[in-house]
Amino acid sequence: MPATLQQVLAELTMMSAPELVHDEGGGVLRCVACGHRCRIAEGKSGVCRVRRNVGGHLQVPAGYVGGLNVDPIEKKPFYHVLPGSDALSFGMLGCDFHCSFCQNWISSQTLRDEQATAMPHQISADQLADLAIRRRTPVCVSTYNEPLITADWAMEVFKRLKPRGVLCGFVSNGNATPEVLEYICPYVDLYKVDLKCFDDHHYRKLGGTLQTVLDTIVRLKEMGFWVEVVTLVVPGFNDSDDELRDIARFLDLHIFIQDHGNQFDLPHIQRLPCRGQAGVPSLLVSLRNNNQRMDLLVLRVVSPRLSHRIALRRGLHRVDDRIE
């Protein structure tokens, strides 16, 4: 009988970094790799389903990728780091959130949804690091799934790349703890946070809390990471004028506008109605008019209802902007 995905992944593990686990006695471990701070009994796993208590030791993912590509760095998206450069992008499997609109659902939700079909492909940290050097990518990014829950192995990769001059980064939901940020700080230069919304009720539906993510953004900046923040605008979920203005005001950063309307038609997404009569275009005008300083916030606009062009991009570069 073929091994299940869970059985395969159970063989692709390593011991957790000691900084990311606390022994609470009685065989119970406290994982601090993400904001859930799961208390994990013997034989059980955390919310992420990939960090597991085995014999009183926290076993975590290692030695494989669920996705591996050389991408334009703007696709991460990092818009203010070595523009026009390539990034070696790798990811594993699993997530501590369960967003129905996830653009990496095939890898992030593969342990929750049988229709998500990503599989692990074995590779060593040395092989990944050597690949980045051979492809001459100046940046290496842990992405495609939530990197916080696989931070232990990502650091094994980054430890091999930092001395060779490669910038290393995370593309994350921001559901971090102070402990995990201290752990990754020596090896991670760049950190992109997906700020899903500005409504705690909505955040809890995704599996997290708003305040934890906001605290992470502030802490990342204070610790000296290069921080960029993205909000994927999902009709009916986070597209109200007030909510998007609150996001922009909190960050007080620049809004770059992309029209990703053609990429919202994914099979696992339930279509949601747009709020109000104004629609996305006038909402974006409102946002621009209410922000004076503009630096790092990226609003990726996803709307199947747009009938005319808002912004024109050639490849990953914006060449025309209709928001005035």
Describe the structure.
The protein is an alpha/beta fold. It has two domains: 57 residues, no CATH class; 258 residues, TIM Barrel (Alpha-Beta Barrel). The protein is built from nine helices and 18 strands. Strands 8-9-11-12-13-14-16-15 form an eight-stranded mixed beta sheet. A three-stranded antiparallel beta sheet has the order 1-6-5. A hairpin with a 2-residue loop joins strand 5 and strand 6. Helix 3 crosses helix 4. It is globular, with a radius of gyration of 20 Å. It starts with a helix and ends with a strand.
Structural class of the helix and strand makeup? alpha/beta
Compute the separation of the termini in Å: 61 Å
Which superfamily, in CATH terms, is the homologous superfamily of the largest domain? Aldolase class I
Q: What is the second-level CATH architecture of the largest domain?
A: Alpha-Beta Barrel
Report strand %.
15-25%
- Which overall shape is indicated by the principal axes computed on the Cα atoms? globular
Mean pLDDT across every amino acid position: 81
**Counting H and I runs of at least 4 residues, what is the number of helices?**
9
Spatial sequence of strands, sheet with the most strands = 8-9-11-12-13-14-16-15
Helix-strand pattern, N to C? Answer: HEEEEEEEEEHEHEHEHEHHEHEHEEE
CATH class of the largest domain: Alpha Beta
Profile the largest sheet: 8 strands, mixed
The Cα radius of gyration reads 20 Å
- The helix content, as a percent range, equals 25-40%
Instruction: Count the domains.
Output: 2
CATH topology of the largest domain: TIM Barrel
Uncertain ranges: 253-283, 290-307
Number of strands: 18
